[in-house]
Specification:
alpha/beta
């Protein structure tokens, strides 16, 4: 989907498209980090960026949907949180090199070559000692999970994400389960989770 399609999707929703709560893996993996400068790529309506700001991070949130960024900005104002909001297409956007202590990419689903380029730029944006966390819909979700995109070209594997991060030390690369409530009870979606660090020189 392009930015116009996402803008239309957000406009059609009377409330937030996504939860107000941060992603469970974002909290699980990042709660113990010391706050610094963070960038949330594909931030959507800002649920993860707002949580990070509440933890004391200086956050830049980037998304190509003007509507989503507008919602995030309003939520930040309502909660007295400071976030820098940018409207930009991640297939073209280059974050400042070496600037961020945390780079977060949550549920950005792009074809392989485009995703690899986003990951390369994201890795370049890490300061020494910084952490990159990617969470996204896993390829195995098609057959063994629920929800998410049904196009295998935009789904992740831990191996492919890790391979697109040369120069970083991979701390974790796994397929993880995320419970999803349904009318018939909870079922699991399968996500790729990769956490990597740029070591100090």
């Amino acid at each position: 989907m392009d930015s116009d399609a996402w803008n239309a999707r957000y406009d059609a929703a009377p409330d937030l498209v996504w939860s107000r709560e941060p992603n469970r893996f974002v909290v699980q993996e990042l709660a113990d980090l010391s706050p610094g400068r963070a960038i949330d790529l594909a931030a959507g309506e800002g649920r993860n960026a707002l949580w990070l700001a509440g933890q004391g991070w200086q956050v830049t949130a980037v998304d190509f949907s003007e509507v989503a960024i507008g919602r995030g900005r309003r939520l930040a104002d309502e909660h007295g949180l400071s976030v820098e909001w940018l409207v930009a297409d991640l297939t073209e956007y280059q974050p400042p090199a070496g600037r961020f202590d945390l780079v977060l990419i949550a549920y950005l689903q792009l074809p392989g070559d485009e995703m690899a380029e986003v990951l390369r730029r994201a890795a370049d944006a890490l300061a020494p000692g910084g952490t990159l966390l990617l969470v996204g819909h896993d390829l195995a979700n098609l057959e063994h999970g629920t929800g998410g995109p049904q196009d295998p070209r935009v789904l992740h594997t831990p191996e492919a994400v890790a391979a697109a991060l040369p120069g970083l030390r991979i701390e974790q690369a796994a397929t993880v389960r995320r419970p999803v409530p349904t009318d018939d009870g909870s079922v699991d979606a399968l996500d790729t989770l990769v956490r990597a660090v740029r070591d100090q020189p």
